[in-house]
Amino acid sequence: MADVVASFDTREFRRALGTFPTGVAVVTARAPSGAFVGLTINAFSSLSLEPPLVLWALNATSPNLGAFDRAQYFAVNILAEDQLELSKRFAAQVANKFSRLEVHAGIEGVPLIAGCAACLECRAAARHNGGDHVLFIGHVERFGYDAQKRPLVFYAGKYLTAGSDLS
Fold this sequence. Notes:
Elements: H1 10-17, E1 22-23, E2 25-30, E3 36-41, E4 44-48, E5 53-59, H2 65-70, E6 73-78, H3 84-91, E7 103-105, E8 111-113, E9 118-130, E10 133-145, E11 152-155, E12 158-161
Antiparallel strand pairs: 1-11, 2-3, 2-6, 4-5, 5-10, 6-9, 7-8, 9-10, 11-12
């Protein structure tokens, strides 16, 4: 193993976690008011094929927590490599993240972002507290993907595109 940290340093822990490349997604839902809500995530994973489950994490202090907590459905929009600016927009605290954005209505009107590598439409299945985050588990009811699109990747604090095939 490389450098071992003698005392627990949160910044160093974050750097260690950053050595694991992840995809980038925007999770969307409808607030109780009907307004669209969404945010950029990279804490996302498949959980089960039978039944089809995925999970994602949201900071417990997020202003979006209430909307996602009450949402019966949400969508995971897996971003394509040409959607870097979209990732930045949904990561920022801006008033209307959906302004001039092409979206389609998913289950129960959940916004699906056009041009993504994949979209997973999920029924909220469970919620668990996990330290400073809340874990959301979704039962995938519908999905679509474009096999020609390469995903946007996040690694060591930077955006990248998927690398070459080593197999």
